[in-house]
Specification:
17 strands, seven-stranded antiparallel β-sheet, alpha+beta, single chain, Rossmann fold, PH-domain like
Length: 292
Amino acid sequence: MGKELNCSVRFGKQQSEGKALLETSEILFRGDFRLKIPFSTIKSAKAVDGELRLQIADGLAIFQLGASAEKWCDKILHPKSRIEKLGVKPGAKVSLLGDFDAAFLTEVKALTKSVSKDKAAADTECIFFAADLKRDLGALPKISKSMKGAAALWIVYPKGQKQITELDVLDAGRKTGLKDVKVVGFSLAHTALKFVIPVSSRWFFRDPHGIEVRHSPVSEMSLPQLTALPTGCAFEPRCELRREECAAAIPRFGSSPAVTRPAASWSDNLDCCWRRILLLRETDQNQGEKAN
């Protein structure tokens, strides 16, 4: 899932149109001939007049990339560290489920002190789950329920093993309602797949006692479903939502007397959304009083 471009490549006496792929630790070319160049084998890398020129032991490979040549060259010369690729920010709340190598633990602890082991901490921002066998994926339903907002779940699994495959991981993650968004080479022997809660599902309801009673995309909920919610039920987002998403929810809440605004503070967009909802209700009530 790296960057890819259609381009022309010259290598020795060979030249071909094809597709170049910039991965996390290598560059590939697929055309009339194929190239696989690990960054570690590149002796020099230059971007000249729209050409990416890579000197390797077997010769000079020239990728005609146009405006992208300089960007690709910079990524080759200054590759991101593993922890950067995984998106772990300084001070982030991280949960580690399973066994991880000492080097990775050192990388995580160098960035944050908020590290929980063997249990997903409340409000965790990154969950790393080590799955060595297909049956280990049976823990995903429980893990996914602990996720909130834009939390990331990275499933780390062995490469090229029959006991657990990429398809096994994708199927298990999707069945819990999560969305796969990124893949990273975690190590020489392991791959990491990133899953998140779909934006449309980052809404939930709490009853007057604070207990979560429904977890569903608002855009898919019918009016009967909304009106069936307990009186005083609070509608909350799992993350800050875009203005158009707020606007899309208004028609469904404008006619639902069961839903009230929760006490929690929200973004300006959500406040705007609720003001419009309340205005719609007041208009409906005034119209009803006039009709009577």
